[in-house]
Amino acid sequence: MSSHPESARPLPVLRALLDAIDRDVLQLFARRMGIVAEIAAYKRHTRTPIRDLAREREVLRDRGERAEKLGLPASVIESVYRLLMLASRDRQAALRAEVPEDQAPETIAIVGGEGGMGRAMVRLFGDLGHAVLVADVATKLRPIEAAKLADVVIVSVPIRATIDVIRELGPHVREDALLMDVTSVKEAPLKAMLESTRASVLGTHPMFGPGVHSFTGQRVVVCEGRGEAWATWAKEAFRARGLVVTEASAEQHDRAMSIVQVLNHFQTQVMGLALARAGVPLEDTLAFTSPAYLLEAYVVGRHFAQSSALYGPIEMLNPRVEQVTRTFRDAATELSEILVSGDQTRFDAVFTEVRGYLGESFTAEALEQSRFLVDRLIELTAGR
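Below the sequence we write its predicted structure tokens.
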């Protein structure tokens, strides 16, 4: 006996109809991006910022209401439009919507330009229309020669080599030029730059990895050293490519990184090491996984898939590594004692203390945003 209505169209026909509709949707997306390009040209001519939060909120509200009237899930449609707007902002940035029409291109030397972050800097400043020189260990153009030629010299070498390279290049950077680094510790490199050159000096830390698909929405920290004009130029360049700029002193940066990087990476490494030594195969745990555990496992997997030579110096060379790791060990020891003793009262007190530190606003935001991430994760891994 047939399990579907006799009047139903065959599955191949229905799939062909969906394919046709999807092609029409893609054509509409392409048309939308064409209009985005016109908007980028208008914004560049009128010096209008790329991002308009009020307009974005208006679009999300309107599309959500229209979706509900059509019987579509508003939350899913919101996700689609958030991605569309991100792609639109990235497209506008790539079209230099925030680069002044009369801005002259600079000659920028990326020392270490064949490394991961070096290539990212080549792409970033190349997208903005600047002339980019690449100097690295195996390039014909040598770093000192590049430093002499360039208006902006960016040091993008392994952390342990950064200060030595700065001291080697600094005396060759023109006084009217800019010497800048992109390493993830700031106090020592900034001091070395100020001591080794009479040029303008700027410390920066791109808070993203070299493999990012889009610069739009990524964050970069800027620590001014010397030369207000070049600092302003660099901040405007980063914003023009869609980055969010955070300004800080070198000391503020390294203190914050002791949490954002050292503590964060340390707890991920402890989790990975504990998993490896717990005696339970990973696949056995994934058979019982919750979305939250799977997300944690992905973070651990992503971390250990990368180079230990990258993460080691980031943590070891932060001046506050001992203090932060000691705080972690003390917290872990205290929680272990609470759990082993079965002391619910002390356990409750920990929750109260941490909730008080986080604050009601952030915990509410965390619930909302993590729910969104978990939903997307379930969509991606359904039937795993």
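The chain has three domains: 11-94, 107-248, 253-381.
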